[in-house]
Amino acid sequence: MVTDLYVHATETNVDLFAQMASALGIDTIAAPSPQDADPVRYLDRVKIVRRVDLRGKIISALKTQTLQNRRCAVILAVPLRGVNTANWAAEDPRIDLLTVTSTNREHQLKTTTAHLAADGDTALEIPLRPLVINRGLDRSLILKAFREAVSVALSAGMQVVISSHARHPLEMRSGPAIEFVGTILELDRKYCRDAMRWADNRISRNEQRLDPDFIAPGLEVVRRGVHR
User: Fold this and answer.
1) I need a labelling partner for 63 at 20 to 30 A (CA). Which of 20, 54, 180, 198 fits?
2) Does a structural domain hold residue 59?
3) Would you state the pLDDT for residue 220?
4) What pLDDT is attached to residue 99?
5) Distance, CA of 165 to CA of 202 (rounded, Å)
6) What is the pTM of this model?
């Protein structure tokens, strides 16, 4: 199964992303969608799941957004910003991804955060798009920041995933292409294939949480009735 955990599709062009995904052999894509839209749907035999990127500089704001979205989104991601918010996200089992969004050293993955994320099975997300659209020195700086983040994550046992972050269908990449990018980030091809399986398993797990009868892993309401 090939999964792309983020494409920047909209309701007006999501069908084009689905067509490209199908052509590239991608089975599942995660994309933003309106809160009242189905969190899981299919187009061109491609599964499209709702993703929400939480925004905010303080933990209370992130907690509020998490409560609002966990039951109506399949993937929740938090950008790597301050240490406090990153550590909170790494420890919260409802958060799936910590996304590298900047070359600013203050926003890079810290060892403590990586260990917390490894314990909570929160993955480090590397966005492919900055490597696709940049050239020269800018691209070199981005690649350096990504490699450093990957190194910290791997040393701590934190899962690493690569997502296209495509804003146009032509920026999407196939599974083998993602594996190649992984080698540039010093991840071997087998690791990249295992990372795609991790992404697929995470989506399957989170889909269960959308069930109104879900209580906790392994627990659900099996009968409803009026107590007498």
Assistant:
1) 198
2) yes
3) 56
4) 98
5) 18
6) 0.91
Which single residue is written with the structure tokens 């920041």? 145
Q: Find the CATH number of the domain harbouring 197.
A: 3.20.20.140
Of 169, 165, 196, 171, the closest CA to residue 182 belongs to: 196
What are the residues facing 126 on neighbouring strands? Answer: 162
Q: Could you write out the DSSP letters of every residue in 17-34?
A: HHHHHHHHT--EEEE---
Closest CA to 186 of 224, 127, 225, 143: 143
Partners of 50 in the β-ladder: 31
Range list of β-strands (E), 20-122: 28-31, 40-43, 46-53, 75-79, 97-99
- Range of 186's domain? 53-210
Establish if 19 belongs to a structural domain.
no
Structural domain count of the chain? 1
Residue 222 lies in a domain: no
pLDDT tens for each residue of 35-44: 788 999 999 8
Residue 1: what pLDDT? 85
The answer to whether residue 228 scores a pLDDT higher than 50 is no
pLDDT at residue 143 greater than cutoff 50: yes
Instruction: Give the Å distances, CA to CA, from 169 to 9, 38, 39, 48, 93.
Output: 9, 22, 21, 14, 31
